[in-house]
Each structure stands twice: as structure tokens, then as C-alpha cells.
Amino acid sequence: MILGEKEINRLKAHDESLFESLYQQTKIGVYAMIFGIVKNHMLAEDIMQDVYMKMLIKIDQYHLGTNFYNWLLQIAKYQAIDVYRRQRKEELVEVEQVDYRVNHQQENPDKEDYLLHMLSVLDDEIGRASCRERV
């Protein structure tokens, strides 16, 4: 799919009918590209919205005479990779935080005993609250 200058200008002018047509022609491939990277349907849909917004923002970077569909797929690929990397980084941080907490609890058994005591108090309160709800 090669877009000419006329179509590019229509996209710049926010031509909804052209956008809708392009979306209908490309949505399956764009979704497949994104889902293949992130492996999550809801996240893929969110990224897909970002891809089409980014396409409109960066339409000036499209080179006339080149394949528009391939250009759009490149945007989708890099957008999905960015999100995937961000998620991986967040997961790594969470694991490091858990390791940190576990290591520090072992160093301070009094604190661990206190936390276990507080959890048992909360469990007792939750149990009493559910008994009151039954009455």
C-alpha cells in the first residue's frame, strides 16, 4: 500500500474517512505484530491506539513512494518493544524489592515477629467482622 501526496495531505487535514479506511485495511496486521511481542490482548489494544496516534503525529516522516503498511508495522513493532522493555524493567525492580525485603526480614527477626503478630491480629479482626455480617 503506497500513499501519495494527496493521501498524506488528507491525513494531515484529519480526514476521518481516509483514516477509517486505512485503519480497516491495516488493523489485523498491526494487532498481530503487537500481540506477537507483548502476548497480552488488552495491552496490545492499548498499544494499537498509540500506534495509530503516533502514525498521525509522524506522518511527515513517511517517505512518498514507499510502502505505507510496512512503515506503519515498523511503528507498531517499535512501540510494542518499548512497552515490553518497560514492563520487563518493572518486573525486575519488583523482584529486587521482594529480595530486599526478604533479606532484611531475616536480618531482623524481631521485626518479622511483629509483622506476623500484626497479620494474625488483622486475620482475627476480619474473622470477627465476617461473623458480625452473618448475624
Give a quick rundown of the structure:
It contains five helices and no strands.
Provide an overview of this structure:
- The chain is mainly alpha-helical and 135 residues long.
- The protein has a single domain (5-134), classed as RNA polymerase sigma factor, region 2, helix turn helix motif (Rna Polymerase Sigma Factor, Chain: A, Orthogonal Bundle).
- It has five helices and no strands.
- Helix 2 (16-38) packs across helix 4 (68-107) and helix 3 (41-57) packs across helix 4.
- The model has no long low-confidence stretch (mean pLDDT 81).
Q: CATH homologous superfamily - what is it?
A: RNA polymerase sigma factor, region 2, helix turn helix motif
Strand content: under 5%
CATH domain fold name: Rna Polymerase Sigma Factor, Chain: A
Order of helices and strands: HHHHH
CATH architecture: Orthogonal Bundle
Rg (CA only): 26 Å
Could you list the spans in which at least 5 consecutive residues all have pLDDT below 50?
A: none
Indicate how many domains the architecture comprises. 1
- Helix tally equals 5
3D shape = elongated
Write down the overall mean pLDDT: 81
User: Can you identify the CATH class?
Assistant: Mainly Alpha
Itemize the secondary structure elements and their pairings.
Blueprint lengths: L4 H8 L3 H23 L2 H17 L10 H40 L1 H26 L1
Helix pairs in contact: 2-3, 2-4, 3-4
Quick tags:
135 residues; mainly alpha
